[in-house]
Amino acid sequence: MLVLAGFVGGALWDGYLARRREGNRLDILQYATSFGIAFGLIAFFTSVILLRITS
Prior knowledge:
The protein is mainly alpha-helical. The chain has helices spanning 2-20, 25-54.
Protein backbone atom coordinates (compact mmCIF):
# COMPACT_ATOMS: atom_id res chain seq x y z
CA MET A 1 0.00 0.00 0.00
CA LEU A 2 2.84 2.34 0.83
CA VAL A 3 4.44 1.69 -2.57
CA LEU A 4 1.24 2.55 -4.42
CA ALA A 5 0.85 5.73 -2.39
CA GLY A 6 4.46 6.68 -3.15
CA PHE A 7 3.98 6.08 -6.86
CA VAL A 8 0.74 8.04 -7.12
CA GLY A 9 1.96 10.83 -4.87
CA GLY A 10 5.20 11.23 -6.79
CA ALA A 11 3.42 11.18 -10.13
CA LEU A 12 0.88 13.79 -9.07
CA TRP A 13 3.42 16.08 -7.46
CA ASP A 14 5.89 16.02 -10.33
CA GLY A 15 3.16 16.26 -12.94
CA TYR A 16 2.07 19.42 -11.15
CA LEU A 17 5.63 20.76 -11.17
CA ALA A 18 6.01 20.09 -14.90
CA ARG A 19 2.73 21.85 -15.60
CA ARG A 20 3.79 24.81 -13.46
CA ARG A 21 7.02 25.05 -15.47
CA GLU A 22 4.86 25.25 -18.61
CA GLY A 23 5.84 21.91 -20.06
CA ASN A 24 3.83 20.30 -22.82
CA ARG A 25 1.89 17.04 -22.39
CA LEU A 26 4.89 14.81 -23.09
CA ASP A 27 7.02 16.70 -20.56
CA ILE A 28 4.31 16.28 -17.93
CA LEU A 29 3.99 12.58 -18.75
CA GLN A 30 7.76 12.04 -18.57
CA TYR A 31 8.09 13.84 -15.23
CA ALA A 32 5.10 12.02 -13.76
CA THR A 33 6.25 8.53 -14.76
CA SER A 34 9.94 8.88 -13.97
CA PHE A 35 9.50 10.50 -10.59
CA GLY A 36 6.48 8.33 -9.80
CA ILE A 37 8.66 5.26 -10.29
CA ALA A 38 11.43 6.81 -8.20
CA PHE A 39 9.10 7.63 -5.30
CA GLY A 40 7.53 4.18 -5.59
CA LEU A 41 10.96 2.54 -5.25
CA ILE A 42 11.83 4.73 -2.27
CA ALA A 43 8.54 3.75 -0.62
CA PHE A 44 9.23 0.07 -1.39
CA PHE A 45 12.66 0.08 0.22
CA THR A 46 11.32 2.07 3.18
CA SER A 47 8.59 -0.49 3.75
CA VAL A 48 11.08 -3.38 3.53
CA ILE A 49 13.33 -1.70 6.10
CA LEU A 50 10.40 -0.99 8.42
CA LEU A 51 9.19 -4.59 8.17
CA ARG A 52 12.68 -5.91 8.93
CA ILE A 53 13.04 -3.66 11.96
CA THR A 54 9.65 -4.44 13.46
CA SER A 55 9.69 -8.23 13.04
